[in-house]
Structures are given as structure tokens and as C-alpha cells.
Design brief:
about 100 residues, alpha+beta, Beta-Lactamase, 2 helices, 5 strands, about 30% strand
């Protein structure tokens, strides 16, 4: 599942459409990105490019598209997460000019 959310964690778009976890993924991805940004700021590590959570049953990859929106993908843990990371980065670059 893929979502686009704004900085307030409101789901803007979801694929597949109307997925029951869309809002939960939006809230979770937005919170994780904000937390990662705060940690990077405190540690003086520079800008956060992606947030990746690898769990027992799923992976979540999130990346800011712009200052106001992010792209997040939730996939099975059986999915090759490396490919998902690359695709999220590529899609975020393409969407940056649109959003």
C-alpha cells in the first residue's frame, strides 16, 4: 500500500484506494519522519532522507516529497526492502515537482 499525506498526517491519496489502514499509515509515517528529523537536528546529522522501519511482518518506508507532504509505502516483510527504498526515493523525486 502507498499513501501520500500532508504534514498534518491527513491522507491525500492512497493506493489501493480507500485502504482501511491508509489513515493509520499516514499518522505513523508522519510521526516517524518528524521524530527522525528532531533526532537528526539534535545530533547535528543533517537532513533526513528516508525513514525505514523493518518489522517482523511488514516494512514501512517513508520520505518527504516536499516541506508539506510525504510518500509512504507499507509492504510485506517478504518484499525485498532494498527495491522499495529505491522506488520510494524515485517516486518522491518525481512527485516533488507536482506537490
Amino acid at each position: 500500500m502507498a499513501i501520500i499525506a500532508n504534514k498534518e498526517a491527513t491522507t491525500i491519496a492512497c493506493e489501493p484506494n480507500n485502504h482501511p489502514l491508509a489513515d493509520t499509515v499516514s499518522h505513523t509515517a508522519t510521526a516517524l519522519c518528524a521524530l527522525a528529523e528532531g533526532a537528526a537536528l539534535e545530533l547535528e546529522c543533517g537532513a533526513v532522507s528516508q525513514v525505514i522501519v523493518r518489522a517482523q511482518q511488514a516494512h514501512l518506508v517513508a520520505q518527504w516529497i516536499s516541506a508539506a507532504s510525504l510518500l509512504a509505502v507499507l509492504c510485506s516483510s517478504k518484499t525485498a526492502v532494498g527495491g522499495v527504498i529505491v522506488e520510494v526515493a524515485s517516486a518522491a523525486r518525481e512527485l516533488a515537482g507536482v506537490l
